[in-house]
Design goal:
single chain, mainly alpha, about 55% helix
Length: about 160
């Protein structure tokens, strides 16, 4: 009798678990249908170097491969560089503003927030195309300050090996 009750208990537990699993699948499918996918900026008139579904799935492999080739072997393949992705996909909005990586509107940030993946590329790399980075007077004044300091040292003999 105990054996029969044990088998019946296992059967009931399995059926309850199965129905719970079906319920979760139905719930997750309806929740998934309501979850908006991130918007990906596709530049007009340009075709990406690889199909979109392949880039979405494998872009990290490409970035790591490119990093290894560049950093360890000195090979620079421009079409697959991070800078080229940024130059193509990060463009000004209707007001002429370019979203930085901290913005929800940035090309990379949209998907990375959706997938809950932290981006650390932009600790070193520019998050916007080079042609849109404003290098105002601060850079030139720093260069001028450096030149002034070096000129003053040369004139005083400071820093010159004797």
């Amino acid at each position: 009798m105990t054996r029969f009750l044990r088998q019946a208990g296992v059967l009931v537990h399995t059926l309850v678990g199965f129905h719970a699993l079906i319920g979760l699948m139905l719930l997750s499918n309806s929740a998934l249908a309501e979850t908006p996918l991130p918007k990906i900026h596709v530049p007009e008139g340009k075709e990406c170097i690889r199909p979109e579904h392949e880039i979405i799935r494998n872009h990290m492999k490409y970035i790591l491969h490119e990093r290894d080739e560049t950093m360890h072997e000195g090979i620079r393949n421009e079409p697959e560089s991070l800078a080229n992705c940024i130059n193509c996909h990060v463009t000004p909005d209707e007001n002429g503003e370019i979203a930085g990586i901290e913005s929800d509107e940035h090309f990379c940030n949209a998907c990375h927030q959706y997938a809950a993946v932290q981006i650390d590329c932009f600790q070193c790399h520019a998050d916007r195309p080079q042609k849109y980075i404003k290098r105002g007077k601060q850079i030139s004044s720093l260069k001028q300050q450096l030149n002034n300091t070096l000129t003053a040292r040369d004139a005083s003999g400071e820093g010159v090996n004797q």
